Amino acid sequence: MSEETQKTNGRPDGRAPGELRPVRFRNHIAPNATGSTLIEWGDTRVICGVCMEENVPRWMKEQRVAGGWLTAEYSMLPYSTVARKGRDSTRGKVDGRSTEIQRLIGRSLRAAIDLKKLGQRTVWIDCDVLQADGGTRTASITGAFVALRLAIAKLMSEGKIKEDPIVNAVAAVSVGIVNGAACCDLPYVEDVAAAVDMNLVMTGAGEFIEVQGTGETATFTPDQLTEMLALGKAGIGQLLKLQEAAVAEG
Questions:
Q1: CB 113 within 8 A of CB 163
Q2: What is the predicted pLDDT for the residue at 227?
Q3: CA 226, CA 212: separation in Å to the nearest integer?
Q4: 120 in a domain, yes or no?
Q5: What global pTM score does this model have?
Q6: Which of 106, 197, 225, 228 has minimal CB crowding within 10 Å?
Q7: Which structural domain range is residue 206 located in?
Q8: Domain contains 2
Q9: Are 126 and 48 in contact (CB under 8 A)?
Q10: Whole-angstrom Cα distance, residue 40 to residue 60?
Q11: Is residue 7 scored above 50 in pLDDT?
Q12: Is position 199 within any domain?
């Protein structure tokens, strides 16, 4: 990338404001999972695996809640960041950030599925970050949907689920205000410099599941919010097409 290119659009990697980093899915990365994919999003890499447990949480049994359940776990491997990140098992507890993200992943993917059609089983979604360069939570959600779709296809082919429980495609992307401009899909170097940081999770029908927006070092105007939402929606539209192609590959 020439210095002139960076000067023209202001982004370190020369991308246009609404342009995504390259996104690639490598399916069946974890053979023992019911469905899995490695999502490579720029320099961020996350393995998303889905496992099925033929049981439901005790609270569902006690409350006689019909159908199944979906939950998620998220972790960053020690070598995923420049400075080694200690394992949660060493500290004896999951850190607050990981807890927040895995709850977000669970909420997001539950919007993708009709839990009653699952039957009495629990879907476990595991997202393990191999390399972090911004957007690990959005990559986890986007990759997890592909892994979930592959897992459901396998269960249906085996006759364990009679009716497809997937009701929505789900994808997520980051947006923010960097150097006074709205940008989509922030790598780490932009994320740490962003005056405003936001994560969007949406369905294939264009509905919001979650909007997480924070003024890190500045406030933002309604017009800036509208611009960020528009960039994010367009980015998610691209991701949905990439997910569809990845699932079609099987």
A1: no
A2: 97
A3: 14
A4: yes
A5: 0.93
A6: 225
A7: 15-249
A8: no
A9: yes
A10: 36
A11: no
A12: yes
